[in-house]
Amino acid sequence: MTPALNILVLNHLAERHINTITSVMPGITVHTSDLAQAASFIADTDILVSWGWMDIRELFLAAPKLKWVHALSAGVENLVFPEIQASSVILTNSRGIHGIPVSEHVLALMLTFTRGLNRLIRQQAEKRWKRVPTDELHEKTIGIVGLGSIGREIAKKAKGLGMNVLATKREMTTEIFVDKLYTPDRLIDMLAQSDFVVVALPQTEETREYFRLEHFEAMKRTAYFINIARGTVVREADLITALEQGLIQGAGLDVFEHEPLPENSPLWDMPNVIITPHLAALSPYYLDRAVKLFADNLARFCQGGEMFNVVDKEKGY
After folding, report:
1. Catalytic residue of the set 57, 115, 212, 278
2. Residue range 221-275, pLDDT digits in tens
3. Helices 286-302, 15-22: inter-axial angle, 10-degree rounding
């Protein structure tokens, strides 16, 4: 007889999402709840589906049957705590579903800078007709810091636009959309060649303030810095210094050290900075992709197969 499985999802799901999950095998029950009401379901929960930014520690401690925690996000920053690290509970994430919207967001930022759209939008508000300097992405060099699933999708699209693609990666692998790979210890070498530097690193203790003033000093004065990873990956004060001193030409920022970005941040008033409110991964298709990934992994879990996107609870990714 197939054992019953109780799944608690800390997010609203449409009926089609619930059907996708329950169709994996008989005996699956799905409850959806917000974090505040989740305590009434947690005692019988076998699988908890959360977001990486949620504080589920109290729920975890009150969940004697819990076997698996899945993050609807790629980041699991708040899901890695001592009790889960010491347990046999599996932790997985939704790595691999963000590449399409995030890569399109990166392209939008790069094209906005090269075609002068950031300046033109301001001029339109002033009803001012004036041409601005323009450039092309063709044959420019993009340096991608962190070649995971998002980095690869960015590389693919950049190569399609005729760009020269460089990237950093821990292991040297064959990458069909990357012209040259660098190990992290050679980051400075890559930065010196890049017209656009895109950060796509996970948030871990190791990557905290990974980008500092010395890295901006190594970049071209004509280069743009784009961060779609996490705000803590960059020492924000150093980035502000680099922009104020003209060490780089501009920045496209979707993530920040403190969110929402404080009103007194000098970044707001910089004409060479584009600010977006942590939405690079947003898409009307996000939950469809996330639920499909979870359901595929649920089938593996139920069949005792090898699961994908298992997070190393010590490393945090």
Report:
1. 278
2. 999 999 999 999 999 999 999 999 999 999 999 999 999 999 999 999 999 999 9
3. 20
CA distance 156 to 154: 5
**pLDDT at position 205, please?**
87
Marked catalytic residue, from 259, 289, 300, 314? 259
Residue 44 pLDDT exceeds 70: yes
The DSSP bridge partners found for residue 262 are none
Would residue 209 show up in a list of annotated catalytic residues for this protein? no
Whether residue 207 has pLDDT greater than 50: yes
Into which CATH architecture does domain 99-275 fall?
A: 3-Layer(aba) Sandwich (3.40)
Q: Is 230 a catalytic residue?
A: yes
Q: Which residue out of 98, 230, 235, 236 is catalytically annotated?
A: 230
Domain chopping of the chain, boundaries: 5-97+284-302, 99-275
Q: pLDDT tens, 54-93?
A: 999 999 999 999 999 999 999 999 999 999 999 999 999 9
Can 57 be counted among the known catalytic residues? no
pTM for the full predicted model:
0.93
| CATH architecture of structural domain 5-97+284-302 | 3-Layer(aba) Sandwich (3.40)
Q: Do domains 5-97+284-302 and 99-275 have the same CATH topology?
A: yes
Q: What is the per-residue pLDDT for 2?
A: 56
